[in-house]
Design a protein that fits this description.
The protein is 73% helix and 0% strand. With 91 residues, it is mostly helical. It contains two helices and no strands.
C-alpha cells in the first residue's frame, strides 16, 4: 500500500443479491438457535433448582412438552442451517 498498490481487498466483487439473502437467512437461523440455547439453559436451571416432588405437577408436564418442542425445533433448525450452508458452498 505504501507503493501505491490498493491491495487484494480492492479487487473483491460486491456481494450478489443471492449472497446477501443467504447471509440474512443464516443470521436469522443463528438468532433462533440462540433463543433455543437460552430456552434449554433455562429449562436446565429450573430442573436443577426445583424441589423434589412426590408426583408430577402441571409445571412438570409443561416443561416436558416444551422440551419436546425444543427438540423438534432444533432438528428443523439444523436442517435449515445445513441447507443454507450447502447452498453457500455451491454458489
Amino acid at each position: 500500500m505504501t507503493l501505491g498498490s490498493p491491495g487484494p481487498r480492492s479487487r473483491r466483487t460486491q456481494p450478489t443479491a443471492a449472497s446477501r439473502l443467504r447471509f440474512e437467512y443464516v443470521t436469522a437461523i443463528n438468532r433462533v438457535g440462540n433463543l433455543f440455547n437460552q430456552g434449554i439453559r433455562s429449562l436446565h436451571e429450573i430442573r436443577q433448582t426445583a424441589p423434589e416432588a412426590r408426583e408430577r405437577d402441571r409445571l412438570a408436564y409443561e416443561l416436558e412438552a416444551l422440551r419436546k418442542d425444543f427438540e423438534k425445533g432444533l432438528g428443523e433448525l439444523s436442517l435449515a442451517l445445513a441447507a443454507v450452508t450447502h447452498d453457500d458452498r455451491e454458489g
